[in-house]
Amino acid sequence: MLLGTLSSQFGPLSGLLETRQLAVICSICLALILAWKCCRVETNPSKHGRLPHLALLTDEEIYDTPIQSMSRALRTHGSVVGFKRNGNIDYLVAKEHAQRVLTDESSFSFEGGLAGMLGITWIRHLHGGSFFRDIDGTMRAFSTRRMNHIVPEIWPLFEKAAESLVTNAGAGAVDIQPHLQQAMAEGTIKIFLSEKYNRADFKERMIKIATDIAYLTGLDPNRSFLSRKFPLLWHAVKVIHIALVRLPLNIGPSLAWELWVDISRDVQDYDPEDSTIFSYLSRRSTVKGDKLSFSAKLWNMVLVLTVMFGATHQTIVSMIWVTFFLAQHPDSQESIRKEASSITEAGGAFKLEGLHSAVLTDSFIREALRTKGDSVNAVRQSVQDVELDGFTIPKGSLVFPFTYQCYRDSDLMENANEFIGNRWVGTGKSATTTGLEYPAFGLGRWACPGRFLAINELKCWILALVARSRLELDGGKYEVMDAFNITACAPDGKLLVSRVEA
Ligand code: HEM
Question: Which domain of life is it from (predicted)?
Answer without folding.
Answer: Eukaryota
